[in-house]
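Quick one, T. Sequence first:
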Amino acid sequence: MNRFKIILGVLFLYFLLFPSTSFSFETKSGFKVKKRFTSQIFFQKKDKANTIILSHGSGGVWKHIYMWKDRLLKQGYNVVIIDHHKEKGIKSHVGKRDYKDFPEERVKDILSLSRWIKKQRWNKNKIGIIGFSYGGAGTNLLANDLELQIMREFKKKDKELFGAVVSYYPGCGLAGGSIPQSSYVPIIIHIAEKDELVTPYLNCVEPINNSNLTVYKYPEAQHSFDVDIPGFKYEGIILATGRKFTNVGHKESRELSIKRTLKFLNSKLN
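Structure tokens:
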């Protein structure tokens, strides 16, 4: 036990001196979850703060995620960027499935990381999560009471970890990543009605009775509409169907969704 406390103390001092540090760790956590992944930690230097985890899409961690990191740091949050791909040897699987990166695997990664964050001195209270695309499917699953009942890795006490969940253009048709019919944590989902990569978008907006859920629809938006990079446009093909898709930013939808997201996080975590 003393040795464990010493290790935690060294880690805390290291992160205090180098707050923007990329590291890998393996957590046994005592909950039968043993995951290895890479995360980057950015925390407020002066005081404790609530923490937001950013869960990337099938394209991995890129500039878009770091722009969200900067946005959240200005709001006074700690930010942890989790890389679900690096330790699995995945570079990108946009437009195709990778069986090492299903929503269930995303949930296991987030659970392990969140249990660790909860013990850190720089974390104030509950944790928020923002998931994008495939990461959104994972956050949908994480907030889903009914689906989580069949996951042995998820324990009842884990519900106390999270205070808010945000899902951007998730793959709601993916197994395990469907819209939560019942959720224990407040969640908002941002849907692009012109999404060509994740279709049909109606899978995400079925009328349901979930008081913890709010769904926002953006009529003119496509997949990745919140990307704020000049000239951004990604065109590809879904390998399973041969169907073409285009991901592109949309200023009005992006600005509105960011406003809604920050207001939601601030109301639930502060």
